[in-house]
Amino acid sequence: MAKQPIPYKIYLSEDEMPRKWYNLRADMKEKHPPMLNPATLKPVTKEDLKHVFCSAVVEQELNQTDRYIDIPDEIVSFYKMYRPSPIVRAYCLEKALDTPAEIYYKFEGNNTSGSHKLNSAAAQAYYAKQEGLTSLTTETGAGQWGTALAMACAFYGLDLTVFMVKVSSEQKPHRKEVMRTYGAKVVPSPSDTTETGRKILAAHPDTGGSLGCAISEAVEVAVNTPNCRYGLGSVLDHVVLHQSVIGMEAKTALDKYGVKPDIIIGCAGGGSNLGGLIAPFMGEKLRGEADYRFIAVEPASCPSLTRGKYMYDFGDTGHITPLMKMYTLGSEFMPSPNHAGGLRYHGMSAILSKLYDDKYMDAVSVEQTAVFEAAEKFAKTEGILPAPESAHAIRVAVDEALKCKETGKKKVILFGLTGTGYFDLSAYKKYNDGDMSDYIPTDEEIEKSLETLEPFQPAE
Amino acid sequence: MAKQPIPYKIYLSEDEMPRKWYNLRADMKEKHPPMLNPATLKPVTKEDLKHVFCSAVVEQELNQTDRYIDIPDEIVSFYKMYRPSPIVRAYCLEKALDTPAEIYYKFEGNNTSGSHKLNSAAAQAYYAKQEGLTSLTTETGAGQWGTALAMACAFYGLDLTVFMVKVSSEQKPHRKEVMRTYGAKVVPSPSDTTETGRKILAAHPDTGGSLGCAISEAVEVAVNTPNCRYGLGSVLDHVVLHQSVIGMEAKTALDKYGVKPDIIIGCAGGGSNLGGLIAPFMGEKLRGEADYRFIAVEPASCPSLTRGKYMYDFGDTGHITPLMKMYTLGSEFMPSPNHAGGLRYHGMSAILSKLYDDKYMDAVSVEQTAVFEAAEKFAKTEGILPAPESAHAIRVAVDEALKCKETGKKKVILFGLTGTGYFDLSAYKKYNDGDMSDYIPTDEEIEKSLETLEPFQPAE
Description:
Chain A has 460 residues and is α/β, with parallel strands linked by helices. Helix content of chain A is 41%, strand content 17%.
């Protein structure tokens, strides 16, 4: 087939949108180890999880065998409000870099939540409604996930309480207001509304809170409220499953034009966007049908893959979640306050951790001033002001494109532009004012945090 | 042709994007009266205008005869970074309203400027670069136009100084930061950097500034700086021309599906988005080929069409621009400080003013609490958090759809969703907190402001 000229933006038609999520685990010869109950160090059961999450989500969480899972029609309809999202050919960035590389990005930011998070929020709220629940709880840090779940809950008519990391709720009053406009109740965390919150406040009255602590509070409320469950925006397998819609759309769009990426790059916090973006490509690699280089990009200030250890750890600070085997810095690790934006979770998706441990994927860490430099260049050439998280992927895409310039090799680079930076202008101000600095945790800091995990490792 | 099912979003392909702007004036049997030099009350010449605007723009401003004007390839390429914009079928809003009406909106908010303003910014910056200029100046109130011109100037490598209404620059530090990220210099207005600014500051040291005053400062700097011109984001004929890309895309997309709107609704501040949206439809009406009902929606607090007079007035407060015949509240009119968002300009596009005066178009005014109520409903059902300006059009679209519910008539409604409200969360907070109120200026206020214009009316 003769190559067609590639437009600036490749949009699928609504008929071409995926009707199934792709379940990457089905193609992993070796699955990741199961979640454990911290009291018994035995695998958690469905029943354990069903106190916390709605049933459909628990089934998906534990389904390691079905390669495809149908997307209910109602969720497809919700997706149509903001999907398919475009694959953009970064013609202007290529020109500015004077690189022989072809650069593409899958842009997930064209919705009010400002990111890919809505893909899983739509599913989680839909299932909750289907099961007759009346409310959800969740936590949010940078705010995209809380906004996404607020939007989905407003659409399906569910109440939502969002525990927002206190320092974020103070620094990002506008994020909070978006959630309120969608009807969500936003509670700065730690709060005096939960036992965990009160304990943390008693010990650290001046704390700005953390994601791990907000998770503890949200789970506590969910399990103690009738007809209420908890929704999580990343890390877990069902979230990665929902996010596979990103990669499936991307692959369909690129296939239409005969484009095969050499390198696929995504930022990695909890891992859901990266897992979703790479899913169908990784599937081909796992099945031996094609090869790709995958690069997870994380902040140097919160480097779970590149400097963490592959151990069992809690999902939260309050230690009320099950244990997951993942690359982690330890659930007590706190990224430096000078770190801007998201990607501040101490652990990493169990799926991605396993794939990384099995060498199917590379990881690099980058410092934030270099990230914002790439963000600024991208904004000026491609017109989109990226989220700081997304700019991590931009940084490495630019670096790879510049390598191509040196070597003269024309590689095809695909990266995930997960969102926009419209609520991150305080961080941009710091950068514009020349007041941004980098921070790299010391080995001692990481070791100290990891030590606390030793009692929770099962015998080999 | 059998009607195809209508998708949630109709995207044109890049090949289907317009290559020409449509010049509505060519089809107006009676043109609007010319701009006048305030000193002589004689029509301004090209030479007068070329001190202020770049030449290509002046030619377009005064071209009342060519029906189509080519869009340079370079501008088409710029447009491809964020266009074509979708026509969205508001299935979810229709369902929530339980109306037989079909509702469509043309969504111009999917770009970092957050609005349609980029359509004219791209053109003005391109022409400035072509003519060897090195910098532009402009003013901004709510901030969309300043952001749009900052993006376009960054892309073409031009310096930009934005005079930002002081109260806006204080209330919207994040808007300011977006412009800075794109390399623009943002000066709160009134400033001590211009003669007009110093005069106003001397007379009113505590003023929060106004759009009219910021225009005066920007023009003053442009005419006194080598290789510098001024760019305006609305009101003038060349801006309406550039914005015709909105209507042309909309018409092409709807024609593909055999959809003919009965009612076309847009918010109106200076008039450029409304003029652009309705352009090709109004062209058909002017040529007697089709009929549509057009509705301009303005805030009750700044009602130039519905309560202003059709007179000659200045474009700015400092009285350094030419006189334009337009519906106006008088260049000294200041909307109440309780008015949120844009749509606060005292006058209205000369083209739209003439069409309104000739009864080709209707106008209604709406109060802001009702506007935010519609915005909230829209956000919850359609997922997009609208700009307060755009929500004026939503309000009237909803009202018209509810009329259809009463009468049982199935009308087809098209409205312009000009932008997103991501930088308007202070206003949403006011609404969410129940602290928003309405303000309607008294007849005396308007009359007093209009009295000052009497010396500037030419003899009949």
